[in-house]
Specification:
With 245 residues, the protein is α/β, with parallel strands linked by helices. 29% of the residues lie in helices and 27% in strands.
Length: 245
C-alpha cells in the first residue's frame, strides 16, 4: 500500500512562524502523520543554526541588518531571500525509511527537476568538502549539498523527535544583496527563470514519482495551528531562545 503524505498549502510567513510551523509538523510526524510543505519568508531573514553564537549575525554588516531567528536544526546561517524553503516531516517506522540519506535524496530530486529544465548541477560527495566562510551555510560545501558552477544552491538539515524526522532546506533561486557573492539557480547565463511556487509544484511531482507515495493536498489541523502559535510565542519569537548562545 502506498504511503500518504500531506501536501500543505504554499505560503509565506515570518521566520519565527515558519520555524514554529516546522516544529508542529515534527510533532504531528511523531504522532504518525507525514507532511511536506514549501514556503517562503515574507522578509529577508537570517536563520542561525541551533549551535551558532548569536554574535555571528553581526560578523557582516549586511547580515546584521536582517531580521533573524534561531533554527532547531544545526548547521550555519542561512539568508532566506529569493529562495524556496521546504520541510519534510516523516514518522518513524521502516515504511518511511530510505536507503539513501534523506538529504541526498531530496537534493537528487531537485537535481532531476533542474536537469529537466536544462540546468546541470553537481551533488557534493565525500572528499569534496570545503569551507569557504565561517558564518554562512552556503559557503560550507558538505556531502549531499547541490552545486551549480561550483556555487551551493541547496542545503538541508535535520532534527528527530521520538524517531520522527524533520528535514528542512533552502533552495537559492536568485542572488541576494545581503550575500552578493552567492549565486542562485537563476543567475547563470541562459538559466531559466523559476518562481518559487512553480519550483515547489515541480518538486512535489518529482518527490511523488521518486517515492511512489501518494502526495495529497491538505490543510493544517486546528491543533497544528494552535501548536504553531504556542511554539512561536514560547520559542522562536522569544529572546531567550534566539539569544541562548
Amino acid at each position: 500500500m502506498s504511503q500518504t503524505v500531506r501536501l500543505l498549502p504554499f505560503a509565506g510567513a515570518d521566520g519565527a512562524t515558519n520555524m514554529s510551523a516546522d516544529e508542529a509538523l515534527l510533532e504531528s510526524a511523531a504522532g504518525g502523520v507525514a507532511s511536506l510543505r514549501f514556503y517562503t519568508l515574507t522578509e529577508p531573514t537570517l536563520s542561525l543554526g541551533y549551535f551558532q553564537p548569536a554574535a555571528d549575525r553581526t560578523a557582516d554588516t549586511r547580515l546584521a541588518r536582517l531580521a533573524w531567528v534561531r533554527r532547531s536544526t544545526g548547521g550555519a546561517a542561512i539568508v532566506h531571500h529569493h529562495e524556496l524553503t521546504y520541510a519534510l516531516a516523516l514518522p518513524s517506522g521502516k515504511e518511511w525509511a530510505s536507503a539513501e540519506h534523506w538529504i541526498c535524496r531530496m537534493h537528487h530530486t531537485l537535481q532531476r527537476v533542474l536537469a529537466a529544465r536544462g540546468v546541470a548541477s553537481h551533488a557534493v560527495i565525500c572528499g569534496e568538502e570545503q569551507k569557504l566562510g565561517a558564518v554562512v551555510c552556503f559557503l560550507h560545501q558538505t556531502p549531499g549539498d547541490l552545486l551549480i558552477d561550483g556555487s551551493k544552491v541547496a542545503g538541508s538539515a535535520q532534527r528527530k523527535m521520538r524517531g520522527a524526522l524533520l528535514q528542512h532546506g533552502s533552495i537559492l533561486l536568485h542572488r541576494s544583496e545581503f550575500v552578493p557573492h552567492l549565486a542562485g539557480i537563476c543567475d547563470g547565463a541562459g538559466a531559466p527563470r523559476i518562481a518559487p511556487e512553480e519550483l515547489a509544484n515541480e518538486l512535489k511531482a518529482a518527490f511523488a514519482a521518486d517515492t511512489g507515495w501518494t502526495v495529497t493536498p491538505d490543510e493544517w489541523t486546528a491543533d497544528e495551528r494552535a501548536r504553531t502559535a504556542a511554539i512561536r510565542a514560547e520559542k522562536y519569537a522569544h529572546p531567550d531562545w534566539n539569544e541562548k548562545r
